[in-house]
Amino acid sequence: MWGFTGILGKLIHLDALLIVWHRLWIAALALGIYTLIKKRMSIPRGQTLVWTIIVGLVVAIHWLTFYTSIQLSTASLGILCLSTTTLHVTWLEPLIMGKRFSWIEFTMGLLVIGGIYFVAHDFKGEELKALGFGLISALCAGIFSVANGKLAQQTDTASLSFTELSTGFVALSLFFIYQGKMSLQLFKMASSDFYWLLFLGILCTSFAFLATIEIVKRLGAFSVSLSINLEPIYTIILAIVLLKEHKILQTSFYWGAAMILTVLLANGIWKHKQRKRTTVNYGNAI
User: Fold this and answer.
1) CA–CA separation, 87 vs 76, rounded Å?
2) Are 63 and 144 in contact (CB under 8 A)?
3) pLDDT tens sequence across 123-144
4) What is the distance between the alpha carbons of residues 237 and 245, in angstroms, rounded to a whole number?
5) What is the pLDDT of residue 221?
6) How far apart are CA 66 and CA 9, in angstroms?
7) Which residues, other chains included, contact 18 with Cβ-Cβ below 8 Å and sequence gap of 6+?
8) Which end of the chain, N or C, is less packed with Cβ atoms under 10 Å?
9) Between vectors from CA 259 to CA 254 and to CA 263, what angle results, nearest 5°?
């Protein structure tokens, strides 16, 4: 599902701010309906609510910078910048989750940075600006990924996602009101754009958001964020097929993508061996 998000940034003919605003209200509405049907609506309270609101704002900033990066350059570049999320997670998890710092995970994150270098070493102008927005987006992704891993231990996953997305929607709506732009004109768009927004908000956001938070609780933020690095691979393939971006991507771009995929596979093997070792030790103890 997330492999489509970068593509939709090109297919939807609206600016980044409008795309994010529509994505937020559609996703929040879908999650609200889901929680009511399942009778799982439980808004966080106290300090948990405060942190949930902060994370909701970070999510909105993440999407704004992400789509700005894509619109300034290509869907492939915008999505590949998110691969640096793993590096941020390695230092954020010890701070937020109290997890022991892992030099192996940190090294894997640096290798991902190496992949980004292959992609962007000769960038300038708008492409360089797009890279900057993409890297800011990755930092925000790391923050909310780790924070959600902690918040999801204290409240229902669907309610948590609903509160975060609603926060982002309210924040952007207040911005539109401040700018004097809140009107029905915000809904003026081509029918194809509206259908793409529904796909983006319901499947690529609500469903993906719920699934990811559940997985973070079981595997940890680093493993999930590193696994999500498959997203650039999906996006690049889709961009080649749908947007013909292979005509403007250089060979170095694919070398970088290959490096990121290699890191992903290495992490999967390492994590698998760790789990087997833990299982064996547990069995011996019994």
Assistant:
1) 20
2) no
3) 666 778 888 899 899 899 989 8
4) 9
5) 65
6) 9
7) 186
8) C
9) 145
Residue for token digits 């029918």?
191
Residue 248 has φ and ψ, to the nearest 5°, of -120, 0
The amino acid at residue 186 is L
Round to whole Å and give the CA distance between 105 and 224: 12
What gap in Å lies between CA 113 and CA 127, rounded to an integer?
17
Report the distance separating Cα 143 and Cα 101, nearest Å. 16
**Vertex 2 angle, CA 153 and 96, to 5°:** 30
> Taking Cα atoms as reference points, which of 26, 3, 44, 9 lies closest to residue 168?
26
CB-based contact 196:11 (threshold 8 Å)? yes
Q: What is the pLDDT of residues 182-219, one digit of tens each?
A: 998 899 999 999 999 999 999 988 888 777 767 777 77
| Close Cβ partners of 131 (under 8 Å, ≥ 6 residues apart) | 69, 73, 77, 81, 120, 123
User: Could you tell me which of 24, 27, 137 has the C-alpha nearest to residue 84?
Assistant: 137
Residues 81/116, Cβ–Cβ less than 8 Å: yes
Output the six-digit token pair for 213. 């938070």
Question: Cα dihedral angle (165, 199, 206, 51), rounded to 10 degrees?
Answer: -20
Cβ proximity of 169 and 24 under 8 Å? yes
| Per-domain boundaries in the chain | 2-285
CB atoms under 10 Å from CB of 262, counted, come to: 14
Tokens of 26: 């559609």
